[in-house]
From TrEMBL:
InterPro entries: Glutathione-S-Trfase_C-like, Glutathione-S-Trfase_C_sf, Glutathione_S-Trfase, Glutathione_S-Trfase_N, GST_C, GST_superfamily, Thioredoxin-like_sf. Residues 106-230 form the GST C-terminal domain. This is Glutathione S-transferase. One of its GO terms (molecular function) is glutathione transferase activity. Pfam families: GST_C_3, GST_N. GO terms for biological process: glutathione metabolic process. Residues 21-103 form the GST N-terminal domain. The lineage of its organism: Eukaryota, Fungi, Dikarya, Ascomycota, Pezizomycotina.
Amino acid sequence: MPTTTNVGNSGAANQKLGGIPHIHYFDFFSRGRGQVIRLLCEDAGIAYTDTRYTFEEFPQQKDGALGDMNPLKAVPVIELNGKILTQSYAVLRSWSRQLGAYDGESEEERYFVDAVCDLGVDWRTLFVLAFLSPNKDKTYPEHCKTDRVRYLSAIETHLKQNPLSQKGPFVLSHRITYADLVVYQVLHDEGLTKDGRMGLEGYPRLRQLVDGVEGRPGVKAFLGSERYKG
């Protein structure tokens, strides 16, 4: 059966969103495309209800009420204030606007945040294809030598060269954005945030981003809690 947990107490961030979001997503450690929504909630102090589904039980669930909430019959699905929200990155952008944070303030900043986010999204797509392939023993090592290196290098270069990123750990220097969370989550899921950041050797700017995200009070508390599942 799915498990449901209530996280946090409703506060100012929930008032801006219009309620307490109910997140439906996989019980897949603290990983996956939808996990970044939980991460935003933890960082921003958004109270949320978390319903998790194992891969084994999800096929049955998607043919019932859960599937009725999303024409694609996929998760994450979020219930909020009588509305249904889908598509992880659209949710991140929408909530950032409502919170008045986690995004750029000028058009130049918003463009750059979008661009870095999209790099993270494209990278995740290739990662998932390789990692979940029936031929994972071949496809994932090849991914690690090719596509992963390509995206690590691209994001590292953007963060080093763009003046918006040169004064602090985040995409917009000292202001965290949803793009930082997206990039962090794919780095985490690829196993690059562990073991003293050994997987990020040669990518000092990305190591700085990881340290910045994990040093945030809400994220730090989450990583040290039972809610963090690895």
